[in-house]
Amino acid sequence: MFRHLYSLVHVLALPILAWQLVRKYRREGHSAEITARLVGQPPQVAPGGLWIHACSLGEAQVAMTLAQAMTELSPARAIWFTSTTPAGLNRLRDGTSGNSFAIFPWDLPWVWDTWLSATQPVACLLIETELWPNLMAACRRRGIPVLLANGRVSTRSMRGYQRWSWLSRPMWEGLSLALMQGSSDRDHAILLGASPQSATVCGSIKLDQVPPDADPTLVSRLQQWASDRPVLALISSHPTEEVEILAALGDSRDQWAVVIVPRHPIRSAELAVQLMPPVVRLSDPQLPPDAIVIVDRFGAIGSVLALTTVALLGGTWIPHGGQNPIEIARWRRPMIAGMHVFNFSEICAGLAEAGGLVQSRYDQLADDLARVYPEAASRGQAAYDWVDQQSGATQRQATAIDQYLLQRDAHAHEGSPL
Description:
By secondary structure, the chain is α/β, with parallel strands linked by helices. Helices cover 47% and strands 15% of the residues. It has 19 helices and 14 strands.
């Protein structure tokens, strides 16, 4: 009954949802793929493959890392992917070969039976916390197990699920395997309905990912712009953070070559207007030495981090919960984060204990930056060392999933489903 109410609300909201999506992706130069989202356009795949769903860019990176490890364990098992965003789908296409891909449709009641009939996956593997009521109900009707990899549930997210427990609890109870990043994630998952037998702590796959590549040409260009000044990089920033951080730096800002990497590069034009001049975008022909540089395209984070002295972690200065700090740590860069790190609470706590991350507030930022700067090299190394010590989550999760699927195959051959 509650799921049907959810479906009704979802259907009634479709005009607003479609309008918002078209407006958003048109600004970014992408098609909204409304038809594919509305009715579902499943990929043409052979029955029995493993379906991995990765919502956006970060989850897509995790999905690729995990899929590669699983292929090494069971080379004959076919894997195909879906993603919700164009950035996620493009990352999957660029990072894998020989796999099929499709846009993940909206969780509408008429989509999934046709979708599952066409694809017949051996299991549906969701990256992080992409749980959808109608999808999971359809999988349950067809006996298709739903697995969760790299799962995380912050305290804030758990409270949100609890407020809608009439809808969320059946989803958590329906998980056949819940591979959680940390002990608190597992505790939260069990409180929400996951079986203690199915929920396991495996660490975060993001800790295993290699640092993003640097483009030598772009590094050289940024090096000429920065000259002999230390580089302060605001990585994956969100609206309001840029203005507030620059204001908080005050006069000390003049000591730094400041580069801003917005979480969504489409915001670069808006930011160039908002910020005090001189401000330029990375794609501009000239980068004046005294200008703040705004990165206006994807794929430049590695080049920025190659020159960074101290990084500021975006998404942590507002109640967003923070972006992934691992890329910064893998480049051996120290970081300063705001107080809102609940998306990566255990990772940030570990980095802070090791000395690679300092939490700050706007009114403390200038002082904390002056404290971190002289120790930048040692703090950056400490961040790298801590991340390196936590590695191995990819292999643990790939092994757990592979063993589950092998056991399921064995039970199926014996005539008794797992």
